[in-house]
Amino acid sequence: MKKTVFLWISSMFLLMFTLSAQEVPTGIDVAFKKGSAQELAKYMADKVDLIVLNKASNFGKSQAENAMTTFFAENKVNGFTVNHQGKRDESSFIVGTLTTSNGSFRVNCFLKRLENKYLIHQIRIDKTNE
Question: Quick check: 60 pLDDT over 80?
């Protein structure tokens, strides 16, 4: 009986920990898989730092969407895999690998909690050596 109760309580803590770590909206993952800047823009803050291949710019939301549209047009997306995600206090992040027609890219998205939801404030895209 004690073993069953212990397993049940352990399962509940694991479930609560897993759910609390999932603060990154799943739509970001889907947007990258589709190569859809329009979908990605739904999760952007009003100002976004965009660093693509070591070229940094600070854009408004619509400019960031246009820049991502250009990136996706030049690099046809074949897939996206989330490698790591996490949260701390009022921020969260996602690290993934974007596979395209021009090779693989490491994608880092940093989010801040604004108005009761997490919004992207920085996207960094770097070419991988694979």
Answer: yes
